[in-house]
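Record type: monomer structure entry
Structure origin: computed from sequence
Chain ID: A
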Amino acid sequence: MRALTLIHRWLGVAFALFFAMWFASGIVMHFVPFPALTEAERIDGLAPLSGTAIQNGPDAAIRASGLAEADRVRLFVRSDGAIYVIRSGASVVALHAENLSPAGVRTGELAVAIAADHARRRGLDVSHASLEALADYDQWSVPNDLDPHRPLYRIALGDAAGTELYVSSQTGEVVRDTTRRERAWNYAGSVVHWIYPTVLRRNWPLWDATVWTLSLIALLTAIAGVALGVLRMRWRSLSTPYRAWHAWHHALGIGCALFVLTWIASGWLSMDHGRIFSTGKPDAHEARAFTGELLVTMLGATALSGAETAARELGWFDFGGRAYRRERIDLERQHLRTFPRSALRDEPWLTDDEVTAAARRLAGCGSVAVVGGDDAYAMKSATPGAPVYRVQCGETWLHVDGASGALLERLDPSRRAYRWLYSALHTLDFPALMQRPTLRTAIVVVLCAVGFVFSMTGVVIGWRRLTKPNPNPPPP
């Protein structure tokens, strides 16, 4: 009992404010997520390819890129002309389609022109657009998915919403946007919840170890508190031996013990990153079976012929050993062609037969089915209306995007358990609640508000303990 008391007392003094911060910021994050450029915004900001002369095909772009192999190739129009972006793993190379010269952005003037053209197509005011900075990192560009694009040009539009766009110096694409409202709320939401100051988050290993350690200590604090609270409770009379703030802390702690424990434990698991559970990333063998190397010989002279004139972006990828061209007309509409081109293919997405054929390249893979929206392990495509296919390979499931052919997720038994222990317990994304978003929101807000009030009683007690010795000694 003495050990529990000492652990909870002094760790509580140190971590009560963390608990209050996490609960309050959790409410903010439910309504205002971390800034990101949505797929709808990205597509809306692209110009149609019609009327643009393309002098070289994607096969020539792959050869000129200098990459040993290519996973995917995209073609779109920037303010300075048509651009190929060739991807190989985490590496990207951008080339001008006209002459296959490097298309990285090296001047602020070009970055402003690209951002203004993108914003204008989205209906934003660009009359006061200006370059704010060129930097590897700032508060809103620290996530790792932006690593291939650094450094980033930050362009302020000067509009009423305080919109800022980030332009990749490597490909010249707009890769992130923020507004004044998003930035303000995220200082009270994601930044404090994830302990996300730029100076720490830019060093991913240090940030990962720091937050994982703090979360683990917080979990031990909560476990000690629950054990102490249960042992101290007068169960016959359902009363507490404490007085004043200690009594409130004890009663609220017993009342919300299950929620606090599961929420803090699942928050710690959010930082797992493969320490205990699998990561959900397909291994190289699985990825190669579905989306292998896009060979130059797959494309050839027909790679551009017959493309949809209204397309905003063309993309080429390999799926199951066959080359596809993806023609993005808008967010929800696309054509998917094969090479050599098949006149019989009119489907906008990959079919279950095509996914099944690709699955046969991987030993042990069997049935293929569309993942329903109410599935407990639902996964959505970034393209509305596109199916996501589940390929079962023994006890492992692979999710394939029917719009792009991308291998989205690998769910082995470990990852499926993680889905419940982290995601369900931390964000309450239980299928029944996901079908009732208003109810889910109400439950999230009420539980986090109760957790915040409970944590603030701990903050008061901790403050009094530090400023007034022995304010409320434990009962005999």
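Annotation 1: The longest strand covers residues 81-88.
Annotation 2: The CA atoms of residues 145 and 442 lie 32 Å apart.
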